[in-house]
Amino acid sequence: MHRSIVVFVLFLSLSSCQNSNEKILVNDVGNQWKKNVPQSFDFEVNDAQNQKNLMFVVRNNNDYPYSNLRLIASIEHDKKKISTDTLNFVLAKPNGEWIGTGFGDTKEIIFQYKLNYKFPQNGNYSVKVVQAMRRNVLPGIEDIGIKIQNLKP
């Protein structure tokens, strides 16, 4: 009983932190992100006239062997690719200290992807992302997500 109350309070506090002007979609990759398994984030745009910020959310732990993360990201509208980008994000300082925030071994960091982005039209969109590192199975990445932030006109 005590545990369910703690879980409910935690859920309530996390859900109250999310701003109504933003949407966060996160996929758990289970600490082993496979190169051939794209992570897909599907969402609907109803206000294409308004610009948005798109940002990646990455949670990594001490099993991650590199100081950077290379990604290939694409935006699709109705299953047609409208853009593809190769990205390189820095996860650690030169001394090896993780840049992200958090307690314990897991750190979370938010990377800018597209700022002031205007979707071409209303409709269903997907952001698909694959890791482009040297390993076929990349250890130490726990979650990958996207944050879609509505900018006020």
The major beta sheet can be summarized as: 4 strands, antiparallel
Total helix count?
1
Helix content, binned percent: 10-25%
Structure summary, number of beta strands: 10
Q: What structural class do helix, strand and pairing data support? A: mainly beta
Radius of gyration over all CA atoms, rounded: 17 Å
Terminal CA distance reads 46 Å
What does this 3D model show about the protein?
The longest helix has 16 residues, at 2-17. This protein has a 4-stranded antiparallel sheet, with no helix packed on it. The protein has a 4-stranded antiparallel sheet with strand order 3-8-5-6, with no helix packed on it. A two-stranded antiparallel sheet has the order 2-9. A hairpin with a 2-residue loop joins strand 5 (68-77) and strand 6 (80-90). It is mostly beta strands and 153 residues long. The protein contains 1 helix and 10 strands. The protein has one helix spanning 2-17, and strands at 22-28, 32-34, 39-45, 52-60, 68-77, 80-90, 107-117, 123-131, 137-139, 141-150.
Give the helices and strands, then pairings.
Layout: H1 2-17, E1 22-28, E2 32-34, E3 39-45, E4 52-60, E5 68-77, E6 80-90, E7 107-117, E8 123-131, E9 137-139, E10 141-150
List keywords for this structure.
1 helix, 153 residues
Structure described in brief:
The chain is mainly beta. Helix content is 10%, strand content 52%.
